[in-house]
Specification:
Radius of gyration: 22 Å
Distance between the termini: 25 Å
Keywords: Amino-acid biosynthesis, Aminotransferase, Branched-chain amino acid biosynthesis, Pyridoxal phosphate, Transferase
Helix content: 10-25%
Order of helices and strands: HEEEHEEEHHEEEHHEEEEHEHEEEHE
Structural class: alpha+beta
Number of strands: 18
CATH architecture of the largest domain: 2-Layer Sandwich
Oligomer: single chain
InterPro entries: Aminotrans_IV, Aminotrans_IV_CS, Aminotransferase-like, B_amino_transII, BCAT-like_C, BCAT-like_N, BCAT_family
Protein name: Branched-chain-amino-acid aminotransferase
Bound molecules: 2-OXO-4-methylpentanoic acid
Shape: globular
CATH class of the largest domain: Alpha Beta
Largest sheet: 9 strands, mixed
Enzyme class: transferase
Organism: Coffea canephora
CATH superfamily of the largest domain: Aminotransferase class 4, branched-chain amino acid transferase, N-terminal domain
CATH topology of the largest domain: D-amino Acid Aminotransferase, Chain A, domain 1
Length: about 425
Amino acid sequence: MENCAVFAGLHPIPPNQLLGPSRSALKLLPPFFTEKTHLFSLPLKLQKQSHFALGTTSNNNGTTSRVASPTSNVTTELADIDWDNLGFGFMSTDYMYVMKCSQGENFTKGELQRFGNIELSPSAGILNYGQGLFEGLKAYRKHDGKILLFRPEENGLRLRMGAERMCMPSPTVEQFVEAVNVTVLANKRWIPPPGKGSLYIRPLLMGSGAVLGLAPAPEYTFLIYVSPVGNYFKEGLAPINLIVETDMHRATPGGTGGVKTIGNYAAVLKAQSAAKAKGYSDVLYLDSVHKRYLEEVSSCNVFLVKGNVISTPAIKGTILPGITRKSILDVALSQGFQVEERSVSVDELLDADEVFCTGTAVVVSPVGSITYQGKRVTYGADGVGRVSQQLYSALTSLQMGISEDKMDWIVELK
Ligand code: COI
């Protein structure tokens, strides 16, 4: 990997100046990163083209961001990494976005910092009581150089819903999308070439202030970092093998299964590790009340195909409202499928033509087999099912800017 950051093709930064987001490090940055704060605004509706240039403006919320200003006449070099073998592993990039606010206040001012470790009190709410949320979305590089985001405002909305459940202040959707945009542009050289993968964007919202008694933290940090990624499962695009978990549950009614809080993911590690040790790709969870209805897989939503009908568990508080899930339902409808959001019994797995999973990280992942109470059901003949393939192609063509965006889901950055 290249160890010398080049931002927007300008001013290589010596390796010894790359570590840490400290103030002294900031002084070593290219001219547009010096003490002087460059502010800019974004239109309220961020559906289309966003241009960033040097200048001092502020947006409707009074949000300000210290940012670099990629301009269209600057050539961006690609980071020197093995683009042909990206998996879903963390790779540090150049910049992260940080914005803080106190409890009872609103987020107002964020800034780009060099990517690096953050400092937290051992008593931080996130560390002691798990007061935290994360999001996940992706940026794609098109052949014409344009950078595309897929429905970023949906992630911003979901973060707000989760923040309400977790008693945290959250950025507005507009602030969220603006922060995503500047973070992606600042890390442009890490966006994989077309067809090689995507830049995974990981926004975090956490109680960063110190607490001892159980209570919401006094301070909150919104942070975004990014990492180039390829396929999520080691199987690549080949079908995955799932096992249905009958003892452990991912979520309970009235709990936090329907929001993207960090604890939901720690809670599945035990079942997931056991499944992986037995050679399965991941775990499919059942509802905790009847132990009979499908919920979701550790990191993604699940769908069944039977004839022309595509079914997925309904959102009712225990299942994450996936943005890819919602998009696939719309894409399937537009392609003439009948779609159903309902309770899906585990018995229906026996009878399905195809099963697939959806998520930002996994995209659309076909399921080759599911094991339930020792019995293995297989789908297809080792190949990817016709419907899974069709929906995968339709969705990824949209996300990569190959097909026309009739849904108005794509945000272009330059
Ligand atoms: C995503 O799909 O973006 C997620 O947040 C799931 C995560 C476990 C990788």
